[in-house]
Design goal:
oxidoreductase (chains A, B), 6-stranded mixed β-sheet, 6-stranded parallel β-sheet, alpha/beta, homodimer, globular
Chain lengths: 366, 366
């Protein structure tokens, strides 16, 4: 990492103009809330969305902002865009931001695996963000939560293999899916057949394998994201990881059961100590009271809660653990805002060399 | 297995007197329902429960039966008891049944690991039931569902290691827990704090690690049951298995994400073919339509649904699969009734040698 070559921009005297793209979605609203709660230093905030959502009014720092339709005009003059409007929207507008010199911190999967785009969990690989070429990608929710636990542990011993099963809340499918979980639950409680339109099946008192498209190997996209994004963020292309991703009837926090194989035995106490000191992690590992993380513990919370750390009975080099994290917060919006905060703090908003942006960023072509 | 030594009892002309012990519980009611639905040949049916539940009236074959308090008197003359009233009740009354020569098919965990007690999944190890000494144990729900998938696969190659994460419904904690999941869900939908009394935490739009007592190694009892019972049923004491058991807000069907390591590679197509032909299994593995088992598919159904069978990306000898089964039905009551049916069919109701029962059954001492 060579940050010395960056022209440090003194942004404390020149705060950026910020836009949230996809401001009316579940993650978009949380982005706006976090910019307010964390007192993010900005010159002005624009709320952008599709023309369909334009006109929506949202509160910010005691004022009411009106959502505008995203366009070349509304993007002009913006220094930093926090986007959570889906991959196609990010692909559509990234080239415009590129010509404006606007930094895009993108919550979609559009650019995550592009070698020119840093994929960042600030607690794990913030340094890579300094080498951006106009885009920094926010990983998938399940990946972020998993890596907050894996990163401190792999300092104890190299990781060999991870087998993970997820318990993913409705929020990962958006605000409408959260609302549908409530309406279909009401249906079931009133002995009516549940009517689902947003999710492929009713999630009320039910669960199903993540319904993202299947690859030929039988894994769904969500599962392959966990593999590929983890490899990129940990800079460990040989990491072996197999995931089973499941949607469960929980509103906004995810859980994961994680089986980790190291290249040598890792004592449980060492793992516990490493996680207790890890940034972004709350150790909740109370074996005496049989009390471990639940979605209800972490809803609205920043940290990922980790517990039930135990020696894997089935492998001498294995550990088992369980974690929960707020999908909308650390799984999406908070991680993006933390990236933005760090980039402002380090003066990394502008790419290290604009020349690189022009020559090496095929990703900016939609 | 030597069934030839049994004196075959022609039970078609002499059907047994049957009692359901714990008849008012979720599993007890299902036992009564299954005896009716499956036209179980019996001389008469007694419904037994704690004195607290005595007097409850339940329908059976067009009549209404009254639940009686379990006692030496009410147990007298019963040939076969199907018990689902908890370990302490089974321990209390098993010696009485022993002196009466009554066969106990026990759904509790009291005798499952006793070397004198067969632990039976009829599709997997029915032959062991012939060697009973008055008690046959029904395995834990999660174990039964898992083994219906593992047993046909291990005919393809020896099993080495299993890593499993469960998604267990409220029914596993009893009828009151199912009712509480509904009342607490109503609380949340009405913005009231959920009030839980049966479960340790509110399960409404929430989930938590199985709250059975923890062993010193950090695993809970439910997880260790899966290990120990699987080893016993498969007669494979070296099987390595690590489980994470999780209670989810689903009413009565469990799901499991299963990672299986064999001692050599097993082609996915071979696994699919073996499971398609396996008794008690429905293959639901529609990759073209991205359609795999859900709890709502199997609620009230006999078979365990298995799907999303895929080569484990993280191990050359690994397969991943997903399964769902009705916890009350195949996970408990149906398995017990299937054991009973087979034992009547084979004339195994009385132990092969009463002498053995007296001398070698310390388990019958409470």
């Amino acid at each position: 990492m060579t940050t010395a070559s960056h022209a440090p921009v003194s942004l404390s005297t020149c705060p950026p103009t910020v836009a949230v793209l996809g401001a009316t979605g579940a993650v978009g609203r949380e982005l706006v809330l976090l910019l307010e709660q964390r007192d993010f230093s900005l010159d002005s905030l624009k709320l952008l969305a599709s023309p369909r959502s334009a006109g929506t009014r949202l509160p910010f720092r005691g004022e009411t902002l009106t959502v505008e339709a995203v366009s070349e005009e509304t993007l002009a003059g913006v220094d930093l865009v926090l986007a959570s409007a889906g991959g196609s929207v990010s692909r559509r507008w990234a080239p415009v931001m590129g010509t404006h010199g606007t930094l895009l911190i993108d919550n979609s999967s559009a650019f995550r695996l592009d070698p020119c785009v840093p994929l960042v969990v600030p607690e794990v690989n913030l340094d890579t963000a300094s080498r951006h070429q106009g885009i920094v990608a926010n990983p998938n929710c399940t990946t972020i939560l998993l890596l907050l636990a894996l990163a401190p542990l792999r300092r104890l011993a190299p990781l060999r293999r991870v087998v993970v099963s997820t318990y993913q809340s409705a929020s990962g499918a958006g605000a409408q899916a959260m609302a549908e979980l409530k309406t279909t639950s009401r249906d079931v409680l009133h002995d009516r057949p549940p009517r689902n339109r947003v999710l492929p099946y009713s999630l009320a008192f039910n669960l199903f394998l993540h319904n993202s498209p299947l690859a030929e190997n039988g894994y769904c996209e969500e599962e392959l994201k966990m593999l590929r994004e983890s490899r990129k963020i940990l800079a460990q292309p040989d990491l072996r990881l197999s995931a089973t991703c499941v949607r469960v009837p929980v509103l906004r926090a995810h859980a994961e059961a994680v089986n980790i194989e190291f290249d040598r035995p890792v004592p449980v106490d060492d793992a516990r100590r490493a996680l207790a000191q890890a940034p972004g992690v709350t150790l909740m590992d109370d074996h005496a009271d049989n009390r471990f993380p639940m979605p209800s513990d972490v809803t609205g919370k920043d940290a990922v809660a980790v517990g039930r750390i135990r020696q894997d009975l089935s492998h001498p080099n294995g550990l088992e653990l369980w974690l929960c994290g707020d999908q909308i917060r650390k799984g999406a919006a908070l991680n993006a805002v933390q990236i933005a905060e760090a980039m402002v703090r380090h003066g990394w908003l502008k790419p290290p060399s604009p020349r690189q942006l022009d020559q090496d960023a095929p990703v900016l072509q939609p």
